[in-house]
Amino acid sequence: MGITLTEQAADRVKAFLANRGKGAGLRLGVRTTGCSGMAYVLEFADEVDPADEVFESNGVRIIVDPKSLVYIDGTELDFAREGLNEGFKFNNPNVKDTCGCGESFNV
Asked: What is the pLDDT of residue 100?
């Protein structure tokens, strides 16, 4: 299935990478935390590990480690502004439940 970005998310990541001046792409993963079990981790990647899976969507490379891919395969990353808030939103078809604050999820 893979990982995809909406056009708005891709534009935002491209702008961040351009301001940063370097980077192989966006690294997306999960870590164990929160009241529901897992949380997303987004960071810029300067290198791609040989074990990583690399997806390209709207001109952006998304780099995912194999352990995280099990939990986020099929995810679409969007970027939205709602009132004074803005940020990335994860549309993950694997999520069974999220915590009340929306910071963590389980599959």
From this structure: 56
84: buried, middle or exposed (CB in 10 Å: 19+, 13-18, 0-12)? exposed
Residues 40-56 as b/e (b if ≥16 CB within 10 A, e otherwise) read beeeebeeeeeebbebe
Which helix (H) or strand (E) segment holds residue 55: the answer is: strand 53-57
Partners of residue 82 on adjacent β-strands: 85
Q: pLDDT tens digits, residue range 38-57?
A: 888 999 999 999 999 999 99
Q: Can you say whether residue 63 is alpha, beta or left, with left for phi > 0 and alpha for psi between -120 and 50 degrees? A: beta
Spatial contact of 22 and 16, defined as CB atoms under 8 Å apart: no
